[in-house]
Fold:
Amino acid sequence: MSTSPTDARPTRPGLTDADTYLVRLAHRSMREDTRALALALRRLPNGSTRGARRLRTWFVRFEAVMAHHQTEEDEIFWPALAEVAPAFAASVAALEVEHDELDRSVSACGHALEAVAGTGRAAEREAAVAAAERLVRVVADHLDHEDRTYVPAYQAAIDPETHGRLSAAAVASVPPALMAFIGPWFLDHATGEDRARLVASVPAPKALVVQGPLTVRYRRLARDVRAARSA
Ligand SMILES: [Fe+2]
Structure:
């Protein structure tokens, strides 16, 4: 009989930080890139639309990553956790409200980027900086909330077998068009053991492609944000 992602029946609850490294990495990456976007926008020269267009193109991919991350929580991880963790179930509604606010902030940022990419004027750039700075705060507040509630509850209540099944469902739900971005994006933010775990999590030929041509393409797309991150 097949199982659905929500058929969580833990027999051996308890996960380690190593088991849940990917959610921590995703959260750190989103915090870092929203802050870098705000800085990259502040650095845009007046009257130039070229840099703004590059940031807008990058943001389309980043926005899709954020949307997928939320969807896998809403549809895969949270329903499974809510089944076995009553305290978490009681807090899901508040987290879902935050996802809605996050959607609005991401959308506002996208529109502001579109405007500055069209004109390059200081007024639109300042509006885009303000939208990006708001996104930084909304992302940080939401992820702080998840890191205090969802992540520890998940680690305590979900068993390794269920975690493996839910994670596989989450990976399978990544839209094919996003795969070429999300692998290099995770690798770009990962350090040390997390990087080794990521590489080991996919077949060797695929890991070579992600670390090679897909990373080259990703770095070209993300160059302004990456430069701002290391500033
Ligand atoms: Fe979330």
The two ends are 53 Å apart (CA to CA). The pocket of fe (ii) ion is lined by residues 70, 73, 99, 142, 146 (CB under 6 Å). The chain has a mean pLDDT of 93.
